[in-house]
Amino acid sequence: MNVSESVSIKMSNHIKKVLPDKTEEDLEIIRYGIEIIFMNLSKFPIILGVGYLLGIFKYSVYSLIIFSFIRGFASGLHARHSYTCLISTMVTILGAVYLSLYLNINIIVKQLVFLLIIYMYFKYSPADTEEKPYLDPLIRKQLKFKSILTVLIYFVISINVNEIFFSNIFIYVLCIEGILISPLTYKLFNRRYNNYEFYK
Question: Coil, strand, or helix at residue 8?
Fold first, then answer.
């Protein structure tokens, strides 16, 4: 058991004592969320530090927050090692910032992309990993609902704000996360998909 798992279990056990009405499904989602947050705490300062040096600090903060929300619900492919995770996350976040600032997406393209995105999230989210399979069907259903709801909220924000960065970042983040939950991406990286099926 790694440190993040140990911390998430201890915190969720404490929550269970404080809030005894929470179901096991609720606690499992809480444990997973805590684990993601803990793992990201070590990466965020480095990514934000690089963003600061590049002069895009505040945009990097916004991108991390926006990405973390949808990632927490839809999950998706994870790197096998911490250093590759750091590099890939840095490229993802900083790349999304630059795309959002300098490559504008018009409303027609957004609508077309949205149709593809909503289909992908409906069909493929949440995408689990070998290390963290979603064994409980209720948890998978709840996470799928939250993923789709987040997609809808992000799209509405994107088409209703005038500031170019915020108009674009939500769409780019959804596209990136859509790639990370795709079975094709899992296959390209030789990773097992729908891991919960192997425990039936």
Answer: helix
Dihedral angle sign, alpha carbons of residues 193, 131, 173, 81: negative
Q: What are phi and psi of 21, to 5 degrees?
A: -80, -10
Q: How far is CA 96 from CA 51, 92, 168, 169, 196, in A?
A: 12, 6, 9, 7, 31
CA-to-CA dists, residue 1 to 29, 87, 94, angstroms: 18, 24, 31
Rounded Cα distance, 112 and 104, in Å? 15
Distance of CA 163 to the CA centre of its chain: 23
Rounded to the nearest 5 degrees, what angle is found at the Cα of 7, between the Cα atoms of 59 and 16? 105
Show Cβ contacts of residue 5 under 8 Å, excluding neighbours closer than 6 positions.
35
Tokens 């799928």, located at residue: 144
- Quote the CA–CA distance of 174 and 60 in Å, as a whole number: 16
Render pLDDT for 18-56 as a digit per residue (tens, 0 to 9). 777 777 767 776 776 676 666 666 788 889 999 999 999
Structure token digits, residue 117? 């995105």
pLDDT tens profile 118-140: 999 999 999 888 877 888 888 88
Alpha-carbon distances, residue 101 vs 18, 46, 95, 156, 180 (angstroms): 44, 21, 10, 19, 22
| Strand boundaries in the chain, DSSP class E | none
* Those residues with Cβ within 8 angstroms of residue 13's Cβ, 6 or more apart along the chain or in another chain: none
- Dig out the tokens for 156 from the structure: 């509405």
What angle in degrees, to the nearest 10, is found between the helix axes of 57-74 and 164-180?
40
